[in-house]
Amino acid sequence: MESIELFHKFIKVTNVYGERMRESERYDNVILHTSELHLLETIGDNPNTRASALAGTMGLSKGRVSQLAKSLLKKELIRTLSGKDKKEILYQLTKSGMKIHEEHKRRDAEIITPIMDCLDGIDEKSREALNRVLDISLRCMMSSSDGDENRGM
């Protein structure tokens, strides 16, 4: 496969993922956007974590994490705790949040398992090359979005 074909497939994957982020899913009586689910998942996997750490893990701005957290707080899926210093706010799942987290993990496994199986079958050299491509892609996309913000776009 030609490099340009791989690049176009990568763009297609990111576009499909971007569209998926705009969708929502129902869990019992709660409707959650994919981005809310990802924050819920990240908090569930990293309990008692600050917004800045969550932002770094997810590749989102601290402001976006705060917006999503506010929504999850309203839906009573997360709660806040005080950190070591009183200004520090930590996030933790509620009982309802844990239930949704577990269900989301089950649903996600259908998507993630075949991808992980494929990645597990790749030799170390190919895995390193893929990692370099992903690192470069992240850097380019992040610097591009930083530039947009600096230009007021």
Describe what is shown at a glance.
This protein is an alpha+beta fold and 153 residues long. It has a single domain, classed as Winged helix-like DNA-binding domain superfamily/Winged helix DNA-binding domain (Arc Repressor Mutant, subunit A, Orthogonal Bundle), CATH 1.10.10.10. Helix content is 69%, strand content 13%.
Structural notes for this entry:
There is one protein chain. The chain has 153 residues and is of the alpha+beta class. The chain has one domain: Arc Repressor Mutant, subunit A (Orthogonal Bundle). Helix content is 69%, strand content 13%. It has helices at 3-21, 34-45, 51-58, 62-74, 95-120, 124-150; strands at residues 24-27, 30-33, 49-50, 78-82, 89-93. The protein has a 3-stranded antiparallel sheet. A two-stranded antiparallel sheet has the order 1-2. Helix 2 (34-45) packs across helix 5 (95-120) and helix 3 crosses helix 4 (62-74). The protein is globular. Residues 147-153 have low confidence and may be disordered.
